[in-house]
Amino acid sequence: xxxxxxxxxxxxxxxxxxxxxxxxxxxxxxxxxxxxxxxxxxxxxxxxxxxxxxxxxxx
Length: 59
What we know:
Elements lengths: L4 H26 L4 H21 L4
Helix pairs in contact: 1-2
C-alpha cells in the first residue's frame, strides 16, 4: 500500500476526527461537570481535522 501525502492527510484527518468525537462524548456522557472544557477541546480537534482534510492535494 503506497502512502502518498494525500493518503496520509486523509488518514490523519479521520483519526483526529475520531479522537475529537471521543473527547466530546466523554465530556457529555462521563464527565458532566467538565463538559464545557471537553466540548471546547473537541471542537478544536474538529477544526484541526477539517484543516487537514482541506490540505489534501494542496501540499
